[in-house]
Amino acid sequence: MGERERLLQIARLAGSDAFSERFGAPLTAEPDAAALRAFIAERADSIARSLIEEAAASDDVIDRESAESYLEDRLRTLAIEPSTTDRIRAAFREGTKAW
Question: Is the whole-model pTM more than 0.90?
């Protein structure tokens, strides 16, 4: 995945309005790496909720195990910092524990 696609996906998952307020329009924004990492960390719960919604809508997710596989694939694709991925995983697991 290219960097622009990654930014677009992060903006959508974290909240386009919040992203735009911080960095400008996702299609043209060029946030520096440290600012983007900080934004992602601040929006980890929103990102987790969005990933839960994605997983619920995916035909490939049929149970909790496949939901976790889906999450891991998305986290790799998005290249989010390990400390933040731990927070996203915890929130995702909490949100999907009944699956």
Answer: yes
